[in-house]
User: Fold this.
Amino acid sequence: MRKILLISLVSLILAGCGRSSNGELVGVRKTKPFYQPDPYGMRFIPQGYFTMGAGAQDITAGNLTQTKSVSVASFFMDETEITNNEYREFVYYVRDSIARIMLAENGFTEYQVTQSRKGVQYENPIINWDEKINWHSDDPQYVSALEDLFLPENERFAGRKEVDARKLIYHYSWIDLRSAARKEFKDDGGYDYRQGAFANRPQGMNDRSLYIHNEDINVYPDTLAWIYDYAYSFNDPLTEHYFWHEAYDNYPVVGVTWTQAKAFCVWRTNKLNSYLMKHGSRNTMAEFRLPTEAEWEWAARGGNQLNPYPWGGPYTRNELGCLLANFKPLRGNYIADGGLATLMVAHFPSNGWGLYDMAGNVAEWTLSAFDPASYNFTWDMNPDYQYNAVNDDDPAMKRKVVRGGSWKDIAYYLQVDTRAYEYQDTARCYIGFRCIQPYLGRNKGDNPSKVTRLK
Assistant:
């Protein structure tokens, strides 16, 4: 018996040596080759060099748009702005997760999972998404468990039982890597590298939890923005129907703040990564976020260098006299382009990289904070200026860059280099957003979508 065990051990050693590299340094071998597929509904934007602000007009004499030559890494970008139907999936997720937690806390344990399929016990139960919610149950205990999710009786109109949008709170966490990366200055002007990531910790903080931030965001869009933004205009039908009616499914979502758009990106990231983990694709991890100001302008140019508009030309009409975007071309004439307010996404032709509505329809949030002089102090490789403003900060610190112009703007704001801003906690009926996913690279021979060369 001992001889058999010895032979087996030697065989295993020899087999292991057969898979080695004869002692040479070859790096850690992966069981599966890495591959990043083209994300659904996104277009590949290649890395490139261009001059931000090139060809800009300064009709406000504000010196907000300066020229800066920069290089930008590759990424994927949504073909269109996020639509009402897509954002509604986010709202439904938050609603359904809260409902399942309420049911589980009230004795309906089928809505929670305590262990994995491999028998591992979870420290905290997780939501069971396989169990459906019965919104029309006749069980008094079931109805009572969900009662707190709906509007109180005194706020119901005509007896309608509706979900209380104020309670649709999405909780997520994020790591402030920029704060963690800062080093502490020494008296001689150098850096204190010994403290590493804890250089900026308050006295008594001995772990990295200092840089972990928890956010609680109400995800429901501000449907009243249609009235708030235009107090002396009859936009009541849009307030009541724009986000929920199926006729507007493929219209860009509006009334979403910068903080809500950021939360949507986190949810979208978790949604895809959960699917990949569940199906064993552990080597492909997704990340969605808002584009930086430089990434947005590079994508909007569509492969051109000096173009004022995404379609490449210096005019807002084609050779047939047709308008090329949804905006306000004439005084008070909103319908010259075929629509009164927003239009269905992808209504007009795309730019050189297959992106629709980079000008007009709705303006778009970017990740970048707004500073009139940011072109002067940002880096020339993937330039970006960020500031994580909190509620107590001065309003000027809460400004985020908005690009692209909207249905209510004149042509100047449609130009790829025009800068504007809005406050991160303010929702407008003319601002939406789209996501990007960083491009990580591929194996040799694997090419992403066809790249349009610079003209």
